[in-house]
Design a protein that fits this description.
It contains 11 helices and no strands. It is globular, with a radius of gyration of 20 Å.
């Protein structure tokens, strides 16, 4: 990517970290501001998913087409979905279903019910919990004592955030629906992460594959419903400027730019330090929700945010200590 090639390795890593954290934070705030029906947006959650897929596909599908042709010329790799996915069909479907389609559907519908403050804790905060449990089951990864403590803090933080909305469910409140959708969205992304780790998927090719799957499955299905005036979609009736803005923010920035910057951050800082850096997202997005969306910082939300952030940092740090003594610095 030309933006990164003009900087030194240290500057590249720092720039990638800043871009990743800012885009992930903006994703939470912008998604709530857009999907919340009380704020008068023209696009609903399913429309935003379509804009996300179209925006990302405009860049990633041509890239996938080129990658597949290069692989075929060298006689390596496998492709699927008419030559637009650089991964075999089975991996494309598995990764695309959880990381490309279901994650977006659950997350954006969650923003229609629950505040961004809840998403700040439950989306990035639940990822370490689900990933650790899935990795222990699918990859036979051992959960150390330090990570167990960190995960326990995350669970308590999630309960503090989602517990209050569950208590008000009988009173007619529906925030708990959004909380549940955020948790399921985090689970879907964790499944994708574990699959990517299990099959050692290249980050760029995996991102192309999940976008291609979402495009070839969701666009024809939802597009046919829109044309038939079924499902209540507003994509065709929304102002063109708003549609283009969502394609840029949700597709190009959230999928393409954040995907590349996160990969660059991993290359420079390593997975452990990168995870610690992204632990800034819950706090920053919660602060942004208070400042820009006017959401009240209730005590249980702030305490849950604190516990989740500490849990992420504690769990990652506890796992990193022992290997750091034996692994050369360049490998971390």
């Amino acid at each position: 990517m030309p933006l990164f090639k003009s900087f030194s390795p240290r500057a590249t890593g720092l720039l990638a970290a800043v871009v990743t954290v800012l885009v992930w934070t903006a994703f939470i705030v912008i998604s709530r501001a857009t999907a919340d029906p009380t704020r008068g947006g023209a696009l609903g959650p399913f429309d935003i998913v379509l804009a996300r897929i179209l925006g990302a596909s405009a860049i990633l599908l041509p890239l996938g087409f080129v990658l597949v042709r290069k692989d075929r010329a060298q006689g390596i790799g496998a492709s699927s979905l008419f030559g637009f996915s650089p991964l075999p069909l089975r991996l494309t479907v598995g990764a695309g279903l959880f990381g490309g389609l279901l994650y977006g559907l659950f997350a954006y519908n969650g923003f229609a019910y629950a505040p961004a403050m809840h998403a700040s804790v439950l989306l990035p905060g639940s990822l370490p919990l689900w990933t650790a449990l899935l990795a222990a089951w699918m990859l036979r990864t051992r959960i150390t004592r330090g990570r167990a403590i960190g995960l326990a803090l995350i669970v308590v933080g999630d309960v503090l955030v989602g517990g209050s909305s569950l208590l008000h469910a009988l009173d007619g409140g529906n925030i708990w629906i959004g909380d549940l959708l955020f948790m399921v969205a985090a689970l879907c992304w964790s499944v994708y992460s574990v699959l990517a780790r299990r099959h050692a998927l290249d980050a760029v090719r995996a991102t192309v594959a999940i976008t291609a799957f979402a495009f070839f499955v969701y666009v024809p299905l939802y597009g046919s419903l829109l044309l038939a005036q079924q499902g209540g979609g507003n994509f065709l009736r929304a102002p063109l400027g708003e549609v283009a803005l969502q394609m840029l923010l949700q597709g190009v920035l959230s999928v393409v730019v954040a995907g590349i910057s996160f990969t660059k951050m991993i290359q420079h800082y390593g997975p452990v330090r990168s995870t610690m850096i992204t632990a800034l997202v819950p706090g920053l997005s919660a602060f942004a929700a208070v400042m820009f969306l006017g959401e009240p910082p209730a005590w249980n939300l702030l305490l849950g945010l604190l516990l989740v952030t500490v849990g992420i940092l504690f769990g990652v740090r506890a796992v990193a200590v022992a290997p750091a003594l034996a692994v050369p610095d360049a490998a971390r």
